[in-house]
């Protein structure tokens, strides 16, 4: 068995493969680690058959949808998942074959309605149902402390005590634990009475996870995070450095159309000498009159160097194959004390 635990901050994801047949699965992948998972598969010479989310995550950005499309494999989630891209939906007790390994789903609602734990040989991937020294919270959408009590005390805690517990979160770098160890030492599991357990879970007073709105939006629909949108655009757009643009400004001949896509006030309060003004909100509507020659080289500049990437990508989509973006924005340009012209567009 080939096995690797990949941490993204406190979020844990897992790559597991059958060494004999070279079949692999990825559990709870995170979007910033996509190249890493694909790199592991290449390094180990294995093929990923399933990408699996143990539940709808509210705290990290799931990579299952993007990985599934890149690898042409199904996204595996529980039957109750809201995600429309979950194409292989499991019920409790369902088993997947990963080469010669058997992966069995145990439905464990509580943290979310669609939570499941995954048992593979001596490992139990517990998602956010059981953490090392903790449990998942039950105060987020579809959370239910009563259900979590049943999923734990009448569910996974009755499994083989020697099973190794691999949770979806671990902030202390402990890696893994066992069922027996958690039963003995996990403070939350010491509340063995249902009412006491529910009372405790209802009074944890936890703050909302960061990015919860964006995480639920993207994880439940397959939509992109803002960071993904920007990085996808950046992969399709060439950049020009601030030093390169500075030397073109110094020569007094830009040799390209420099397009400032900020709002009017920002443009007038200071722009790169020679920059033309076309606010991003009007880009598509005015592009035919403002940029009549599609073979022109166009360099887009904005305030932070992010929106310019999207605008350059839009221009390329519209048929400007030489559109690019400044690596940096007007904020960095000003901070570097590079030359600026004030006033309205000529
Ligand atoms: Fe979670």
Mean of residue pLDDT values: 97
Number of strands: 19
How are the strands of the biggest sheet laid out side by side? 1-2-3-4-5-6
Structural class determined from secondary elements: alpha/beta
Intertermini distance: 67 Å
Helix amount, in percent?
Answer: 25-40%
Strand content: 15-25%
Give a structural overview:
- The strands form four sheets. A six-stranded mixed beta sheet has the order 1-2-3-4-5-6, with helices on one face. The protein has a six-stranded mixed beta sheet with strand order 7-8-9-10-13-14. A five-stranded parallel beta sheet has the order 15-19-18-16-17.
- The model has no long low-confidence stretch (mean pLDDT 97).
- The longest helix is centred in the N-terminal third of the chain and has 11 residues, at 34-44.
- With 346 residues, the chain is of the alpha/beta class.
- The protein contains twelve helices and 19 strands.
- It has helices at residues 34-44, 64-71, 145-153, 179-185, 194-202, 212-221, 226-234, 242-251, 264-268, 283-290, 307-317, 330-335, and strands at 2-8, 11-18, 23-27, 47-52, 75-78, 88-90, 95-98, 101-107, 116-120, 123-127, 130-131, 134-135, 164-167, 177-178, 239-241, 257-260, 276-277, 298-301, 323-327.
- Helix 7 (226-234) packs across helix 11.
- The chain binds fe (ii) ion.
Write the layout of secondary structure elements.
Blueprint: E1 2-8, E2 11-18, E3 23-27, H1 34-44, E4 47-52, H2 64-71, E5 75-78, E6 88-90, E7 95-98, E8 101-107, E9 116-120, E10 123-127, E11 130-131, E12 134-135, H3 145-153, E13 164-167, E14 177-178, H4 179-185, H5 194-202, H6 212-221, H7 226-234, E15 239-241, H8 242-251, E16 257-260, H9 264-268, E17 276-277, H10 283-290, E18 298-301, H11 307-317, E19 323-327, H12 330-335
Parallel strand pairs: 3-4, 4-5, 5-6, 10-13, 15-19, 16-17, 16-18, 18-19
Antiparallel strand pairs: 1-2, 2-3, 7-8, 8-9, 9-10, 11-12, 13-14
Helix pairs in contact: 7-11
The structure holds fe (ii) ion (FE2).
